[in-house]
Amino acid sequence: MEQRSWVSSTLILLVSVGLLAAESGDKGFTLSLQDAVKYAIENNREVMQARLELAKADSNLMKFEGKYSWRALSKAELDEKKFPFNQNNIFTGTKTQTTTYSAGLEKLFTTGTYFKLEAKSQRFDSNAFEDPNKTPAGFTALGLPPLYTDTLSVTIAQDLLKNAFGANERNMEKILENQTEIMREQMEDQVANKVVATLVDYWNYSVKESGYQTFEQLLKNTKTVRDLTIRKQGLGLSESFEVNQWNALLSQVEGQMAQAVAEKEEARRKLIRSLNLPEDTVFQKTTPLSETLPTKLDYAADIDYAYKHRADFKAIVRKKENAELSMKTAKNEALPSLKAAGTYGYQAQNLVSPQNNYTDKGAGVFSYQYPVMQGSLDLSYPIMDKGVKAGIRDAEIQKRQVSLEEADLTKAVSDDVKTRIDILKASFQVMENAKRTEEESKKYYNGVLRSFQQGRFNALAVKNALDTHVQDQLSLVRAKVDYNINLHRYYVAKNALFEEYGVERSKLLPENL
Prior knowledge:
Strand content: 5-15%
GO cellular component, one term: efflux pump complex
Distance between the termini: 80 Å
Protein name: TolC family protein
CATH class of the largest domain: Mainly Alpha
GO molecular function: efflux transmembrane transporter activity; porin activity
Organism: Leptospira noumeaensis
Keywords: Cell outer membrane, Membrane, Transmembrane, Transmembrane beta strand, Transport
CATH superfamily of the largest domain: Outer membrane efflux proteins (OEP)
Number of domains: 2
C-alpha cells in the first residue's frame, strides 16, 4: 500500500511539473491587436505593394489634366527658294530667303477655350535688283536690304456646338475622377483583406504553437505513465505487455510531435516573412485575440453602413454617373462641330534690325499702329456616321448593365453582411462553449487526479483525462482564432476595419510619392 501511494505521489509531481513548464516562459515578440493591424500595414510586403498601387490610382486623371497645363512654344523655320531669271522674276528676284522665329505660351482651359500668346520675328531677303547685269537701267536703286517683320498676337479658339465650352472634356474629366475613386477604394479594400490575411498568419502560428504544446504535453504525459508502468512492473503491479502498449503509444506521439514541430516551424517562417521580421525573431505565445462580441450587431444598421462605405457598392454609384456622362458625350458627338477662332495683335516692319521693331516708339509694335486681325469659323456635320450611332448604343447598353449590376449587388451586399453577422454570432457561441468545455475538462482532470491519488483510478484514466483536457485547450485556441477571423471578415464586409482600429485611410498612401 505504501508503494502504491509512493507511485501515485511521484506521478502527481511529474504531471504538475509538466503543466507548470507549459505555462511559463511567455516572453518574445508580441503586439496588441490594434498594433498588429498597424504593423501589418507598415511592414507586410503584399500590403506595401497594394499601397503602392493605391498611390497610382489617380495616374490616368493626372495625365488627362496635363492637357490643361501651360506650355511654352518655340519654332524656327527657314524657307529658301531659287528661280531661273526671266521676266516674271525681275521684280521678285531669283533667290529669296525667309527666316521665321516664334515663341509663346499656350493653354487649353476646362471650358474648351484655347489661348495662345505668340511673338514672331521674320526676316525676308531677296536678290531683286541687286545684280547690275540683270537689272534694267534705272532700277538699281530698288534693291533693298533684308526686311524685318515682328508680330505680337493673341489667339483664342472655342468649340460652340459638339464640345460646347468644353462639355465633353468636363464629362471625361468627371468620368476619370470617378474611375480614380473606384480604383482607390478597391485598392483600400485589397489592403484591408491583406491585413486580415496577415493577422490570420499571426493566429495560425498561435494554433500551430498550441498544437506543438499539446503534443509536447502528451509526450511528457505518455513518458511519465510509461515509466510509471515500468516501475509498477518491477513491483509486480503490472504486466510486461502493458509496457509494450505504452512503448507503442510513445512512438506514435513522438511521430505526431515531429510533425507538430515541422508545422510550427513552417508557420513561424511564413509569419516572419509576412511581417517582414528578422529570421531570429522569437514570438510570444500569447497572440492578440479579441474575445468580446460587438455590442451593436444589427442587420439593418450594418447593411446601411455597408451601402455607404463598401467599395463595390460605392463603385456602382459612380458607374451609374459615368454611364450618364457617357450618354451625354455620345449625344454631343452627334451634333455638328462649330469652331470659332480669332487672332488679334500688332506688328511692325523695318530694314534695320528686329530689335528696332520693339524699341521704335513711333512705328514699332508697341506703337499699336499696325494691327493684325484674323478670324475663322469651321463647321462640320456628321452624316450617317456609324461611329456616332455606336457610341450612343454603347452608352445605353452601359446604363442597362450598371442597373442590372446594381440590383444584383444590392442583394449580394445585404446577404454578405447578414451571413457575416450570423457566422460571427455562431463562432462566438462556439468559443464560449469551448471555454466552458475546457473549464469542465480541467475540473474533471483535477478530480481524476485526486481520485488516482486515493487509489480509485488507474494511470490510464489519468492519461485519458489529461489528453482530453489538453485537446480541449487546443480546441479553445482554435475557436478563439476562428472567432477573430470571422470578426475581422465582418469588419471587412461592411468596410469598417480601418475605422475600427483608428487607421486613417489618407495615411495608407506611401510617403514621399
